[in-house]
């Protein structure tokens, strides 16, 4: 079994013309650090896929500040308008190529984070608060998954 952690970025600044350039607010940074501490205690990530958008990159950086990962990649498929089916195919391919890595963190955005969960666990499409993490148990042999829980930051 593998663990897939689907995370929405922390709170970001207001909408602007260049959505990709939106940065985390101070609250968003605090949320990311908090969830990074929780992940380090419960599900330390070994591999990370992160959206190229600034707020997702900043979230991943804050989450991983006290962690060491073996694989990290920026992924163009997990932007807000991305195709979740394509992204999950890519993630499953990476998991099969790096079979010694058991815990994968994906840092992305609404609505794709909800669609990613639905691709892995059909019928489950949670609404993510900022910096929330969905914990999914994934069997690479059967390609079946179970949503274990959705964890929200307290800040």
TrEMBL record:
<protein>
    <submittedName>
        <fullName>Phosphohistidine phosphatase SixA</fullName>
    </submittedName>
</protein>
<dbReference type="InterPro" id="IPR013078">
    <property type="entry name" value="His_Pase_superF_clade-1"/>
</dbReference>
<dbReference type="InterPro" id="IPR029033">
    <property type="entry name" value="His_PPase_superfam"/>
</dbReference>
<keyword id="KW-0378">Hydrolase</keyword>
<dbReference type="InterPro" id="IPR004449">
    <property type="entry name" value="SixA"/>
</dbReference>
<dbReference type="InterPro" id="IPR051021">
    <property type="entry name" value="Mito_Ser/Thr_phosphatase"/>
</dbReference>
<dbReference type="Pfam" id="PF00300">
    <property type="entry name" value="His_Phos_1"/>
</dbReference>
